[in-house]
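Hi P.,

Sorry for the delay on this. The queue was packed all week, but I finally got your sequence through. Input first:
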Amino acid sequence: MIGGDLTLVWVQRSIATDMGATMVKLNGPRHWCLDGLGAKVAVVDPVFRDFNGLTMRRLATLELGADFAAGAYVRRFVNRGAGFFFDAGQPVYELVDPDGAAYVMQAYRRRRPHPDRGRPARIG
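Then the structure:
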């Protein structure tokens, strides 16, 4: 983290103001659970921005809508336009909601080190 939680909040607010966004959530790094990415099927304009010396490229968009409600496991559509591939015989992890709808896990992130890092089947 850059300089603790207070600095992180300031950076997020600064980026949101600069981008004209309702909010910004810095959410990396990711640990991928998939085996490959395919060609884009719905292109997102490749906007490049510099954030404190780090050049980033927009690869996806997320529409939150006027009735945005933050929280864990809220159904959202990410316009990323890429195909994901999983190798035959390799584990595929699913997140299942209370209604029984299954979502294939593409990646996960932990804010703090976890003893099961690298073993998604054991992360709760």
